């Protein structure tokens, strides 16, 4: 405030916050003041009303710009978006007018008997419920296009109303501090809450009778009520007592209440502050105090974005990553916030230094309090940085020597921290742990400034078991390990020597020397280069050794086979099958290895399969099962038996006919 305009412009160039500022939606503002702001159900359009002149502006989030602007005859008290997009909007205006807009613009205009303050839309019956400076609740049916019988309440005036999205209970907040609940099906009052009495607790101080200034349902059972004295009451509809009472401590009317379900938060706002607090405990999560007074707050669905309508041309947009992800139309905000967290930069004022009263006493400048050299700010003062440096040099002339000693001590501590810690070597896979430590030391020497510090396997909890459980011990004698690591023999010998030295030091329990470790000698570097040149030779040696080991194993197996005696094996034949030879089983195995197409061709040749086309266009396959020898013999025996019975029957019939003829002649 006390800086000149030129100084302010110079600071703005250096200010990191101004350079980071992002304009999400182009011209997201009103000419003078914005009063209400809402988001369509599909999330594509943001609508705001304001003055002056009275108007509505619709912003398309997919285009990040303004879609249209419409001027109105009078100021808007509140408005509601009836459709998923901007095609159906209802405005409640100051002059008792209710104006309907369609996609092309103004559609119809009507008037209610008394001045309205709020309204709600009942989707099942297409009714608009208007409350205002009257004891009646006016009902306008949009399907029939006429007013219905109004609801007669006990209140003199009503301020706000809302409809539960689950069971469609209609609730209205009165000027006497009560909430009346009505059933739209029977048009009867089903409940009455005295919020004014419940909002007064031992810690609150009020100047008058609290009236209800905000009302919002959450689910089927929860309801939040805001009062004109700055209290927010959370109710369960099954109880007349509030679950929790939260005071803003400003004594200003609550303008807006929103529910954030991911973190179970309630976002309540008056004209000065926005508070986010836990709905179960009442603990404050965070709070925001904009520069200008707040008229309305809108939470973008399923995200961490918050928009406010203010007593200023600019409408504010806040993004809080903890509340949720960024909307899909500005998903780049997530990447930006991650980059800002990785590279935090603090605001530095080059020309001024902030000091407290204790700092001034230590510097001997307490007598300057009240003069033009010190500017009071919060719990301290701003002073010129040149004066601060001069006073510090006079008060402590040996400050540079102390700073130099501290830097030297820090460097020594860093070198000590880079050493191998003897006590931290694990019991399992010691050589692997030593290898990882050596690689970390090499990376610290060759690492660039911009590269990140990668986590160590020794400190990672996911790989903790590998250095504790003996089952994870690396087997260096296995074939895979020797082929994949052909130079491991030479390197492992070095590490084994180093391990022996470390174990001896542990046994003796000697303290570490303070001198820093030296760099690797030229001999070691030459050895490593020789190892790289002899890589192929080492692989060949390993392969020869593996072949020799295989030959030895084969000879041992051959000797064991000669010593063992062969025993006869017995096979069991299934019932109904005859054993011919082992060739049949071999043929079956060959047949099973063939593809289905080859087997079908073979079956067609043998005559056991018949494939024919049908009239529909598909194919029909007919199978004939093969008969075993036993089944064939049985069928032949049955045929022979039938033949014998036929011959017997014929002979018997022949004899009967002969006997009949003899009796006739007799």
Automatic annotation (TrEMBL):
Residues 348-396 form the Nucleolar protein 10-like second domain. Gene3D superfamilies: YVTN repeat-like/Quinoprotein amine dehydrogenase. One of its GO terms (cellular component) is 90S preribosome. InterPro entries: Beta-prop_NOL10_N, NOL10/Enp2, NOL10_2nd, NUC153, WD40/YVTN_repeat-like_dom_sf, WD40_repeat_dom_sf. It holds the Pfam family Beta-prop_NOL10_N. GO terms for biological process: maturation of SSU-rRNA from tricistronic rRNA transcript (SSU-rRNA, 5.8S rRNA, LSU-rRNA). The keyword Coiled coil applies. Residues 642-666 have a biased composition (Basic residues). Residues 507-536, 617-666 are annotated as: Disordered. Its main location: nucleus. Keywords: Coiled coil, Nucleus, Repeat, WD repeat. Residues 460-486 form the NUC153 domain. PANTHER family: NUCLEOLAR PROTEIN 10. Belongs to the WD repeat NOL10/ENP2 family. This is Nucleolar protein 10. The lineage of its organism: Eukaryota, Metazoa, Chordata, Craniata, Vertebrata.
């Amino acid at each position: 405030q006390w800086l000149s305009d030129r100084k302010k412009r110079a600071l703005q160039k250096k200010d990191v916050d101004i350079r980071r500022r992002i304009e999400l939606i182009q011209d997201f503002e009103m000419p003078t003041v914005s009063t209400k702001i809402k988001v369509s159900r599909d999330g594509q359009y943001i609508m705001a009303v304001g003055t002056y002149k009275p108007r509505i502006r619709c912003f398309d989030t997919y285009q990040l710009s303004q879609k249209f602007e419409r001027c109105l005859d009078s100021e808007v008290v509140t408005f509601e978006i009836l459709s998923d997009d901007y095609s159906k909007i209802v405005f409640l205006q100051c002059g008792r007018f209710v104006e309907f807009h369609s996609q092309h613009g103004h559609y119809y205009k009507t008037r209610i008997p008394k001045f309205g303050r709020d309204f709600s839309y009942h989707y099942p019956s297409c009714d608009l419920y208007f409350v205002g400076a009257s004891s009646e609740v006016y009902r306008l049916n949009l399907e029939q296009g006429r007013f219905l019988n109004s609801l007669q309440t006990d209140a003199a005036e009503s301020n706000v109303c809302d409809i539960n999205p689950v069971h469609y209970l209609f609730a209205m907040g009165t000027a006497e501090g009560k909430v009346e609940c009505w059933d739209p099906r029977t048009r009867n009052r089903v409940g009455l809450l005295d919020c004014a009495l419940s909002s007064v607790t031992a810690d609150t101080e009020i100047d008058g009778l609290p009236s209800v200034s905000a009302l919002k349902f959450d689910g089927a059972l929860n309801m939040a009520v805001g009062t004109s004295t700055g209290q927010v009451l959370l109710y369960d509809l099954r109880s007349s007592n509030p679950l929790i009472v939260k005071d803003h401590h400003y004594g200003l009317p609550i303008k807006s209440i929103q529910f954030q379900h991911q973190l179970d938060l309630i976002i309540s706002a008056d004209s000065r502050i926005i508070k986010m607090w836990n709905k179960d405990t009442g603990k404050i999560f965070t709070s925001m105090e904009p520069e200008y007074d707040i008229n309305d707050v809108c939470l973008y669905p399923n995200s961490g974005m918050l928009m406010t309508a203010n007593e200023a041309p600019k409408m504010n947009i806040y993004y809080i990553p903890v509340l949720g992800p960024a909307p899909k139309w500005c998903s780049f905000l997530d990447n930006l916030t991650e980059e800002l967290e990785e590279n935090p930069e603090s605001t530095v004022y080059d020309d001024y230094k902030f000091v407290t009263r204790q700092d001034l006493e230590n510097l001997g400048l307490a007598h300057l309090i009240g003069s033009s050299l010190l500017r009071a700010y919060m719990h301290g003062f701003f002073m010129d940085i040149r004066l601060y440096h001069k006073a510090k040099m006079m008060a402590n002339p040996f400050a540079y020597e102390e700073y130099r000693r501290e830097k030297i001590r820090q460097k020594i501590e860093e070198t000590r921290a880079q050493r191998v810690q003897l006590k931290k070597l694990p019991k399992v896979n010691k050589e692997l742990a030593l290898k990882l430590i050596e690689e970390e030391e090499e990376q610290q020497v060759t690492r660039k400034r911009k590269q990140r510090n990668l986590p160590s396997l020794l400190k990672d909890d996911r790989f903790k078991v590998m250095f504790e459980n003996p089952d994870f011990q690396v087997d260096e004698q296995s074939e895979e390990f020797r082929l994949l690591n052909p130079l491991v023999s030479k390197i492992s010998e070095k590490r084994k020597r180093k391990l022996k030295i470390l174990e001896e030091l542990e046994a003796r329990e000697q303290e570490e020397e303070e001198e820093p470790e030296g760099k690797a000698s030229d001999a070691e570097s030459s050895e490593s280069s020789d190892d790289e040149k002899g890589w192929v030779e080492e692989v060949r040696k390993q392969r020869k050794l593996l072949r020799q080991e295989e030959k030895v194993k084969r000879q041992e197996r051959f000797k064991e086979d000669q010593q063992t005696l062969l025993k006869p094996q017995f096979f069991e034949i299934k019932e109904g099958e005859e054993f011919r030879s082992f060739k049949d089983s071999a043929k079956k195995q060959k047949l099973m290895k063939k593809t289905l197409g080859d087997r079908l061709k073979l079956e067609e040749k043998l005559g056991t399969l018949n494939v024919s086309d049908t009239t529909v266009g598909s194919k029909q396959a007919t199978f004939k099962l093969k008969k075993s020898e036993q089944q064939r013999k049985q069928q032949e025996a049955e045929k022979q038996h039938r033949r014998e019975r036929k011959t017997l029957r014929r002979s018997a019939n022949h004899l009967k006919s002969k006997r009949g003829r003899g009796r006739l002649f007799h």
